[in-house]
Amino acid sequence: MKKILKSDGFQSLIASLICVILGLLIGYIVLLIINPSGAWEGIMAVIKNFFFYPSGPARMKYFGSTLVKTAPLVMCSLSILFAYKVGLFNIGVAGQYCAGVGASIYFALAFHLPWYVCVLGAMVAGALLGGISGLLKAYCNVNEVISGIMLNWICLYTVNGLLSKVKEPTSPYTYNIAIKSRKSLLPSFGLDKLFGNNKYVTIAIPLAIILAIVVMVVLDKTKVGYELKATGLNKNAAKYAGIKEKKNIIMTLVLAGGLAGLGASFFYLTGIEQWMCTSSSVPSMGFNGIASAFLGALNPIGTLISSFFIQHITNGGGYVDKTMYCSQISDLISSIIIYLCGFVLFFKTVMKRMGGAKK
Amino acid sequence: MILLIQYTLIFASVLILVALGGCVSEHSGVINLGLEGEMVFGALGGALAMKYLPADSSAFVIILVAGLAAVVAGMLGSALLGVACINFKADQTIVGTALNMLAVAAATVIVKAINTAENPDNVSSEISYVQAKKAFIENINGFEFSWFMLITVIVLILIATLLYKTRSGLRLMACGEFPQAAASVGINVFKMRWLGVLLSGALGGFGGLVYITAGVSQWKFENGVAGFGFLALAVMIFGQWKPKHIAWAAVLFGMFRALSNVYSGFDFLVSMHIPSALYNMLPYIVSLIVLAFTSQHSRAPKAEGIPYDKGMR
Fold this sequence. Notes:
The complex is a heterodimer.
Chain A: H1 2-6, H2 8-34, H3 39-48, H4 56-85, H5 93-111, H6 115-140, H7 144-163, H8 177-180, H9 191-194, H10 204-221, H11 223-233, H12 235-240, H13 245-268, H14 285-295, H15 300-316, H16 329-341, H17 344-358
Helix pairs in contact in A: 2-3, 2-16, 2-17, 3-15, 4-10, 4-13, 4-14, 4-15, 5-6, 5-7, 5-13, 5-14, 6-7, 6-13, 10-11, 10-15, 14-15, 14-16
Chain B: H1 2-27, H2 35-52, H3 59-87, H4 92-118, E1 126-128, H5 130-133, E2 137-140, E3 143-146, H6 147-165, H7 167-177, H8 179-184, H9 189-212, E4 218-220, H10 228-238, H11 243-262, H12 267-271, H13 276-294
Antiparallel strand pairs in B: 1-4, 2-3
Helix pairs in contact in B: 1-6, 1-9, 1-10, 1-11, 2-3, 2-4, 2-9, 2-10, 3-4, 3-9, 6-7, 7-9, 10-11, 10-13, 11-13
């Protein structure tokens, strides 16, 4: 028992739970300030999400919808996590995701390519963008956070321009992939039957889970993973030990970008949403990925759970009483949670001290 | 042409203010990636002040109250960064990023709550201040002079003097270079870092107010400040963390930003048929190229980004 209490994993779990509970509590207080009469129903709507529906099939259907949006979030947080283990903060994940959106939708609508080509295209687009950040970091010493942000904006405007070529003439949205190019949609292999015939439930969900396990194995069990982590811990020591640190930095951001690009195709190739070609900011999916990566204590399996949780409350935000509150309340809660994740080190130190005192 | 100069100067003012904010914070040893968020906080404070000030207030009162509100709001935002990064030794990159997201989400929730309370059908996150904004501007023969341009020059001189000519400024910079050495001669590192962070919040907040009044008279808070805080960081790096160089860098970047507003007024630019999206991208592309060439021999403060630990020598 004592062993469990003292283990690092357990302490990370407790620290994450503290972040979640404090985040929800602050969210509740904000609702109380805005309008005390409906605050409890408001915060419960955020927490309940699909349990809002009383009957079984409807509940399963909306559980499926939450999962559909969880898959890209898992990919974005894997991208953040992977780069962070190598000492890089890949804030360009939002732009890489955006590049993936551009490639997957354009390949589907302009060339009517089958789904696996669109998925690959999205991965390559994200990887290329990540590669630019990597090259700039390795050879020009440009901080990856700054170059990432700049590339986010460049990419947003490029994708808006590119996708304007395949948009509906009367609206700012791109054509519906389900109508224009059915074979570009991800197959579901009967998974949709499990979730109340929710046609957006596809192989993206199991693929995201498999990729999380792959990332974990690569980082923990392979030589490449070991070298990458060594580069992250001390670049100069790694170089001294004969590891090509420049190559590793570039490769990390390429892979991280590829993961983010894949995430975009996992979402847009289900046909659930069309891209708005007048978007004025990059999709928030990437930034939410930062939240779930840190909330999941930078562990691939942890991020599966935390991604689901973040998406759960984000979707739940849609059920608050719109006459009193707005759905962005869940964005506020998740940003508070990331802020609190900064204190994880402090929480853990306190727990260690308490553990020590007992002994 | 006059329009280009006008927009260049006003955007340069924003960049100078915010980049100076980044500059003081980094010289004290704290990387401030939350500048963007501090701008949003400041913009919100300033916009709310302009909204609630009586319409017949004099220009001086409007400038003073809106400016103070922006400064205070920016400082409150930066205090969040200070608590986490200075006292609790949190990772400065994560907290800065969190602050940016927090600011946009909080501003959206607050503004929407206010708008919906006034009129249940109004679910936008927009505040407009058409009347109040006129207080900032003097029209001189078609050139819209903004008082903020003058204030920026004064702030620039003040910050440069503070950093290089005063005791506190030099102490502050010592804390960003080698905090343990600074502590050994009796300087309170925590106090100096707090000074740097709060000053940067004040400057960032004020810069946010200037940004949302540059050329527009309403602001949609869902959009934040569109990466301007990060552009300011690029300006700061290009300016090698020195106020004078930052000013020139800001004018250069301000010009590229201004081009996207006014390019349609130039016949030769219109005749080239460059898509407007390219003009929107221009400041970001230029900053990437500039950073690629200037980051190699960086003069960044040596101890920035590392939480101060007394025991580490």
